[in-house]
Amino acid sequence: MADKHKKNITEDITAKEILDTIAVVGDMITALEPKQQHIMTEWLDVWRTYLGFEKTFIPAKLKYYKRGDIVLANFGFNVGSELGGAHYAVVVENNNNNASNTLVVVPLSSLADGKTESDLHKSEVYLGKILPGSDKLSYAMPLQIRAISKLRIIKPKTKNDGQYRINGSQLQMIDNKVIELFTKPRQDS
Question: Which residues form the domain of 91?
C-alpha cells in the first residue's frame, strides 16, 4: 500500500475508471442519512469550486493574517470526530507569509444554549463573547488545530472586510493549552 503513493503518476485514468468511481461515491451518498447526504453533496460542490480556483489562486491578494485574527473558514466534509463545515477559527501561526498558501488555525465554536464554561471538555478553552453583535459564548478547540489552505477562508478576504481579533490574554490561554496538549512536560533534573 505504501508503494502506491510513491508511484509517479503520468497517465490519465480511463473514462470507465472515472464512471466506476462516481458510481461508488453515488452509492455511498445514497446510503447516508439525509443530513449527511446534503452535507456531502454541498461539500463536493464547494470542493469542485476550490479545485477550479487552485490554478489561479494568489494568496498574496488576500489580506495579511496576523496571530489572533479570527477567520471564518470552511473545514469541509471530514470523517469521525474531525471538525467539518463552516467555523470561525483563530490564527495561531507566528508571522504567516502573505504568499503562503496555508495558515495554521485553532477552530472556535459556541456553547449550546443552557451550557456554561463548566460544561467544556478539559482540552477546550473558554473565550466568552468574542464576536461583536453576538451574545454567543465561544470556546477554542486546540485538539482540532490544523493548517488550512487560504482557499478555505470565507471571510475576511481583504483588508476592507470587517476583522475580529481575540485579545492577548485569550491567545495566551490557547497557547498554554496547545503546549499542555502537544508537548512533553519538561523533567527537571
Answer: 59-182
For residue 156, is the peptide bond before it cis, meaning its omega torsion is within 30 degrees of 0?
yes
**Residue 2 covered by a domain:** no
Q: Measured in Å, how far apart are the chain's first and last C-alpha atoms?
A: 44
The model carries a pTM of 0.83
Q: What is the CATH number of the domain that holds 166?
A: 2.30.30.110
For 42, other C-beta atoms within 10 Å of its C-beta total 13
Angle at 30 between CA 23 and CA 41, to 5 degrees: 85
pLDDT digits (tens, 9 = 90+) for 105-155: 999 999 999 999 999 999 999 999 998 788 899 999 999 999 999 999 999
Pair (107, 67) in one structural domain:
yes
Residue 189 domain flag = no
At 61, the pLDDT band (50, 70, 90 cuts) reads: very high
Does residue 3 have a pLDDT over 70? Answer: no
